[in-house]
Amino acid sequence: MHAFAPEYASRAKGLGLEFYPVETHLQHTQQEINTALIERPELSNSFEAMRALFAPLAAGLPGAFEQLVAACRDADVLVSGPAQPAARMVHEKTGIPFVSVQFSHFGGVGSPALQEASASVINPFRAQLGLPALRDPLTIDANSPQLALYAMSRHVCPPPADWPSNYHMTGYFFLEDEHWKPDDRLIEFIATGEKPLVITFGSMGAAHRDRDASTKLILDAVNQSEQRAILQIAGLGSSNQDLGRRMYAIGHVPHSWLFPQASCIVHHGGGGTAGAAFCSGVPSIFVPHGHIFDQFYWAQLAEELGCAGPPAPYSELTSDRLSAAIRATLATPRYYESAAALAEKIRSEDGVRKARALIQQLVYKVGLQQDLRGVLAWGTEQPERREEKTARRREYQKKRRSK
Known about the structure:
The protein is of the alpha/beta class. It contains 15 helices and 11 strands.
């Protein structure tokens, strides 16, 4: 069962996943916060401003909690990212095994004002449920006390030596969508010239209030650099009218397929996008969209690893600066050498397989602790024993819920 906001229904259906809608304000709230902090970064240091931005989250929490409880009714384990604060609450109230997955931080992100504001919005509902307050409920305190997975690579940044024993860095998670196929026109564009730039700002692009101005800046920079480019820009969609022969606009295209086609990747530097760029073996130009996000951190690591030059912050971005960064990156062979070497190391990891093994170990361990002794580890026992274990675990869960 996959429980997400309703707008992800079509994506889940396309992947053949069972989908359960959870009504929240998270998507809209996140975009409003992104927009506000791109335009006025100083707001991140104001508790009052940050609390006002997080206020819609409070309205959505009770409903999200109840719906998530219903979605987990017959589940063996709950797996969630940090942006859904109801997940840890469901674990704390029901006892269902809980796995948290972090994609973009190493122990807390954002200013003290942001952490305090999110706590002030989330903790009142936790109190209603009889749960203790959390200091930083959207980052470090979103971690599971049972199993906290960090879907990132030790080759980009090694895990801290003092991590708790339930924290594990697995390697990146990459989705191989076997049903997705590239458009023939996109294939033709890539094949009819030198490798193109790929420019994408992900969710940050949707947060630009003046999208026309940001799009014009990018188009001007591409023209000045005299390069071909694939543009994945919010609002531009897949309309290729008036872009000329050197530029091609796309909608959804998996980065795992798209990025290796590029000569250089221009992106905002979010955790997922940065991971895909690191795995591609292609150098990047980071355009961080605000100090409150993790984007400057990944940009700094990329520069230290030698697969990117200095970042070009969006707040200081001009077409001249971006075109100069493009030309400088394309003319620096060591960026390509370092990017290729890093990608080879990252591809040797199998984050999904390792995460799966750790999750199975947790469910098995919890089963033993709940008097399900004598059952062999999942995946090694005979099928009839596996069925017996599953049936006994579900019976235990039913009894636990009825209390």
